[in-house]
Amino acid sequence: MNGLRERLAPHEEKLRFLVVGVWNVLFSMGTLWILERLIPYGPGSRLASAVSGIGAKQVVLALNWVICVTQNLFTFKLLVFRTKGHWLREYARMYVTYAGTFAVESVMVQVISATLGWSLFAARLPTLVVVTVLSYLGHKYFTFRTIGEAVANDLETPGSAS
């Protein structure tokens, strides 16, 4: 058992990220499922009429995104990266990190939904691998990176000025 722990120790943060990520995905998918049922967005709906230039599906996805990014801040901050303080800075950085993943995911979901005729819920499933990798890298190296870690990394980088 100790041998397994020693082998897993360097990957503990990644494993926590995956476990918490499963919860975050389930939460997000559940939220999207509920939003699709509460907010009609099809042709002729009030939402479709109100946002004809944007796209009603995008409005539902964006609302889901805001709810889930907020929830993810708590789980990633407290359970994965275990940072102290800096709530507002990390929350703002989380939106920056997720802006890229949201753009990638939105395009993928729209293409899958349009070409295969799948619901937003079903079309989101195949995008999860891409979004997970992008999310981990963004959070590890930007959202939850402290100034101390950045300085320490610069000091350890070979070829950096000493």
Question: Can you put this structure into words, describing what you see?
Answer:
The chain has one domain (2-146). It is built from 8 helices and no strands. It has helices spanning 2-8, 12-38, 46-50, 56-81, 87-116, 120-124, 128-143, 147-156. Helix 2 packs antiparallel against helix 4 and helix 4 crosses helix 5 (87-116). It starts with a helix and ends in a 6-residue tail after the last helix. The mean pLDDT is 86.
Describe the structure in brief.
With about 160 residues, the chain is an all-alpha fold.
Gyration radius, to the nearest Å?
19 Å
Q: Structural class, from helix and strand content?
A: mainly alpha
- Mean pLDDT over the full residue set: 86
Distance between the termini: 41 Å
Question: How many domains, as an integer?
Answer: 1
Descriptors:
mainly alpha; 162 residues
SSE map:
Blueprint: H1 2-8, H2 12-38, H3 46-50, H4 56-81, H5 87-116, H6 120-124, H7 128-143, H8 147-156
Helix pairs in contact: 2-4, 4-5, 5-7
